[in-house]
Structures are given as structure tokens and as C-alpha cells.
Hints:
The chain is mainly beta. It is 9% helix and 40% strand. It has helices at residues 2-21, 56-64, 182-190; strands at residues 54-55, 73-86, 91-97, 106-114, 130-135, 137-140, 143-146, 151-155, 158-159, 199-212, 217-223, 232-237, 256-261, 263-266, 269-272, 277-281, 296-297, 299-303, 306-310, 316-324, 334-335, 338-340, 346-350, 359-361, 366-369, 374-378, 383-390, 392-393, 396-397, 405-409, 412-416, 429-439. The strands form five sheets. Strands 18, 19, 20, 21, 24, 25, 27 and 32 form an eight-stranded antiparallel β-sheet that branches. Strands 14-15-12-11-10-13-16 form a seven-stranded mixed β-sheet, with helices on one face. A six-stranded antiparallel β-sheet has the order 17-30-31-26-23-22, with no helix packed on it. β28 (392-393) and β29 (396-397) form a beta hairpin. The radius of gyration is 32 Å and the shape is elongated.
Amino acid sequence: MKKVIYSMIALATMTFALSSCEDVPAPYDDPNNNTNSDTIKVEPTGAGTVESPFNVAAANNYIKNKGDSTVNVYVKGIISEISSVDPSYGNATYYISDNGSNTGKLEVYRGYYLGGKKFSSEDQISEGDTVVVCGKLVNYNGTYEFTTGNYIYSLNGKTGSQESGGENTPSGEGTLTSPYNVAKAQSLISSGTNTSDSVYISGIISNIKEINTNYGNATYFISDDGKTTGQLEVYRGYGLDGVKFSSDNDLKVGDKVIIKGVLIKFKSTPEVQTGSIIVSLNGKSSGGSTGGGTPSNGTIATSGTTVTITNTAATAGEKTVAIDLNTLNYANAESVSTVTLSDGSTIVFSANGEKNGPKFYSATKGVRVYSNNTITFNGKSDIASIVLTCDTYKGTDYVGNPTATIHFKGSTAVYTNYTSDINKSNVQLRVKTITITYAK
């Protein structure tokens, strides 16, 4: 009986010893359970620009914090997994992370190859490749991803030219001698850098939406290669040296231009804001159909209810002409178009394609100029300055939007009461009197 008891005790002791061994760490790394590289915390870095791309951690934070999903950003990472490369459609779906593992990864959904080209072979990318991807970041039903249409900007340090949805390398300083290319302009707008001053942008006209000979402006698109991918909208701009367009043939697709204007993002659209001018057309930098003066942007200054517009390229003389808009016998709420001054010069008020156009109101004792409306001053000689006296009501001085623009060309000056959603301004210009001073 004792032998049976001793045997049972021995068996229980062996069972306990064997089960205890299961909790003892293995004396070597188990290749099927090695998570050291996956658990390294990576700090978010980068600004999302081509010069300073997000890392994957920053990209995931950008999506988590509901960053703008309508703009292109740049993200650098290592390909950790490839779901598919489809040469028939030319795109690929794969994942990138900061360390090449599947931890903290970001999906790149149906993206294009280097420089925006279509994939033609399954071996064009591999796990372990270092890429910079450009595209829009979204949260798609809980999945953080680059949405379709993205492309590889850089592959293992190599960049490519845009051909089907990509971009050229951003370049230029924004000056006349070193204009931004379209890729640089797009990069600045995407990064939230909006220029308050005019800059120079070079490109090739890729599409013409409209040439409006009634208002003398045009809306068209430019890109770095003349293709419609990656193009930048030029909204209601003027022609060479700021001259108004007079024919549908004044511009054509394929023309090479240098534009002077302000870069903005209007709602979700990157664009050159209204009032831009072409300073070079197919290498030609002058020769507009109207003479007189040097093309120039002026300055707009407000003091109380007085708006002073100055042509910085002109010296004021002694000749002036003035008009009081309340003396023209307009009916209340009557639309206003052309006003003729005592010396025969004219002032043309225009809706500039907007729903609301300039109107006279007796309460204002002048003309209300709404956002994006224009006033064109056609003087008898070169204009040096224009002074507007405006209305005030309930503590608001109606002196126009702070983003209003002015362009001088000799005897012509075009004022645009421009507004954008960036500064959320929407101030009418309620002008009562106008005084034009001519240049010496």
C-alpha cells in the first residue's frame, strides 16, 4: 500500500515540475513571437510638405485629428506589406510604416507609381522600399489611408516627373527671375502657406474654362507639363501686362505663361486669386493692345471711411477729377454700370460674374460694391491715385474686403473687392465719392 502511495506522490511531483517549466522564458528569441521592433514608439515628425514630409505616425495623427482631407500631403515610410499590384489598372494597394513592421501602419489605397505613372509590373515595389507618397489622407470607415489617386513621389531616394496624377519637383523662389513652378505653388497652398503679396508662377496652359470678353478676364488652368493632372486654377485673371482679354483667341492650350498673382485656397480649390496678370506669354513680356504706363500693382490703404489707392509706379500731378455718386439721380436699389466723369473718363462697375452686382442705395448715398465685384477706372491719362469716401453703418466702416486687389496699367486701374474663405471676410465697399489724381 505504501508503494502505491509513494508512486502517486512521485507522479504528482513530476506533473507539477513539468507544468512549472512552461512559464520559464526561452533562452533565445522565438522568431514567431519577436515583437520588439513592433513595440518601439515612434514620435510624429514632419509638416506634410515635400520638403518636410510627415512620418507615418504624424500621418496617422493628422487623420485622427481630422486634418484636411481635400489637400495633398507628403508622407515618408517603409513598405511593410503589399496587398496587390494591378498592372491592368496601373495601381497598387500596400501599407507603409515607420520601421517596416505592421505596427502603426498606414494603407496606401490604389496608388500610382513613381511620378504618378501607372504600374506596369508587380515587381516595381517591394517590402522594405522607402517611399515618399503624395496624396490625400482620409479615414475611410475606420481605416486610415491614402485615398485613391495618390502616387509615389520618391522611391528609395529617386523622384520622378509627373505623367499621370503626380507632380514635378517643386522649384522656384516666386520672383520674376525665378518663378515658382506649379508643383511649388501647389505645395505652398497645401501646406497652408498663403501669400498675402503677389508672387510669380510659371506654367503651361492645360485647360481654358472661360475667356469672358465682357469683363475682360479669363479662368484657366496651368500645369508644369501642359497636362490636366496636377493643374492649378487661375481664376478670373487678366492678360499680358494686365490688359483685358478682347478675344477668345487671346489664350490657347499649350501657351507658356508667367503669372503674377496671389496664391490662395478658396474653399477646397487651390488657385491664383482673381485679378492676376500675365507678365510673360510664350516668352513675350510686353506688347499689350493698350498703351501707356508700366504695369504695376498698387497699394490700398484705409483710414476710417476713406480708402486711398496708390499707383506706386507713378508720381502724382496736379490734375484731378471727382464725382459724387449721390448726385446722379439713380433710383434706390438701381443697378449701376458705367459712370462718366466731367473730363470724359469713365468708371465701370461690374458684378464680375457674381450673383450680386453693384447697386445704388439712397441710404448709402452711393454704390454698394459686393464681394468679388470690380470697379474699372478708365482715366484720360495715367492714374497716380484714387481716393474713395465710403459709408459707415452701426459701427462698421464699409471700406471693402482687406484682401481687395488693385492693378494699374497706365490710364486704367482695376479694383476687385476680393474675398476668400481663408480670412472669412465679406465686407461691402459702399462708395460715395471718387477722386482720381492723374500722374505727372
